[in-house]
Structures
1.
Amino acid sequence: MYKIAVIGGDGIGPEVVAEGLKVLEAATARTGVTYELEHYDLGGERYLRTGEALPEGMVDELRGFDAIFLGAVGHPEVAPGILEKGLLLRLRFELDQYINLRPVKLYPGVETPLAGKGPEDIDFVVVRENTEGLYSGMGGIQYKGTPQEVSTQIHMTTRFGAERAIRYAFELTRKRDREKKLTLCAKTNVLTFVHDTWWRAFNEVGEADYPDIERDYAHVDATSMWMIKNPEWFDVIVTENMFGDIITDMGAMIQGGLGVAAGGNINPDGVSMFEPIGGSAPKYAGQNVACPIAAISAGQMLMETLGEEETATRIESAVERALASGKIKSLAAGKMGMSTSEVGDLIAGYAGE
Ligand code: IPM
Ligand code: MN
């Protein structure tokens, strides 16, 4: 019996997570996987009510779960950074979820903005380092509000942090068993300190332990270009935190939009957290119009990470069937021709067959 913590969070978060849970229930009813859910009321509303983004002791409580299912964090009435740093990043850091795993996969029946590209061309995974880089929180503002104002935001890289992300990516490339090609995305020509650490870690680890994996390198600007021009060149991409943030939004677009893009914040030795990467989309909140597929696929990733392959496969097949059915007109919020819960019902129906 797994214990899963559910944080619906802000905006469309609770609505899409509800559909993710609906599909999880339908799939596990067939596979026999059992779990209990505990719902946590965290997010912008709670912050506005109590002044706390993450109450004392909550992180330790969350350590007791097998996984966390997260909707979205972000509230229009809360200043930028408060919830992001106080809730989402705190969970990632304190639970040491050092991998942000973001598959970019175009399913048949889904439209991509890339002309002439199809599902056979767009199927790769981004392994984003999730605890360091520009997200470290190091730096500050001096002489604020004066003409002499100075601000720094330090790109913190440790060999340990880079290496563990790189090792995870090599293992994943081997496990995927496709092109067996791992691309390091960095900017070694400018970030000659932090990305030199990445570069050496990448080559040393690859040479010593992964001779079967082809090592490829692309600067982040070139990676952005190739993702649009030749996405079929990628199998697995490993990159630092900020670059990973940016290229995975682009990845989401080429796989059909934020409505289908799921991700996992993974601690391979601890508790991992799964989320649709699209955010809280406040303008669609409470209207039952947002696409729940990203959240449903986040549930699939959750099961996969727990080692429940059969349940994960069942969810993915159900998503694929729904997308190929032609019943969902578009994946954009408000344009699906169905409501959020109807899409959830459709996929849950397939998952339970
Ligand atoms: C994401 C988001 C977060 C990030 C924000 C909300 C802090 O954009 O999960 O990609 O930058 O990591
Ligand atoms: Mn992002």
2.
Amino acid sequence: MSRVLYPGSFDPITKGHMNIIEQASDLFDEVLVAVLCNPNKMQGMFSIDERVAIIEKLYENIQNVRVISASGAAVDVAIAYECGAIVRGLRSLSDYDYEVGMQQINKEISNGSVNTVCLFADKEYQFVSSSMVKEVFSLGKDISRYVAPDVRKQMILKRR
Ligand code: ADP
């Protein structure tokens, strides 16, 4: 069985993330979406548990997508959950530069057992990021092009 880990901050999950999850769920038997607690990132808009709940609701009817929260290194989570690969989404050259180093480190740490698969979002999501969505939202602009309706609803509730 091919199980892959899709780790990230997902604060909040965007249509770009969702596009990567859809592609991965078509390619692999199971996609484990891991909301990682990153101590280097300032406190986010949503708590880790809220992010997990939002993503779980989006995929409640998709059999091969599971959601977990975890702390620590993605490669350790991948090993613990017996994932053969880590999925990452590539948007730009700066994503590439970062990911090329990370995949090398992860391969070394796991003695070659955890590889990295990079996928590309469809072009309409190429420039979508959680931080961009939060910024546009804070300016009072419509974000329905970038996030699912339920995510937008949760953001509006959070702002109140
Ligand atoms: P991280 O803090 O690990 O970058 P993110 O939640 O920002 O967490 O992103 C998780 C993964 O999804 C990363 O591999 C990131 O490059 C990818 N990703 C985010 N947005 C997009 C997008 N619009 N298109 C493709 N990949 C994306």
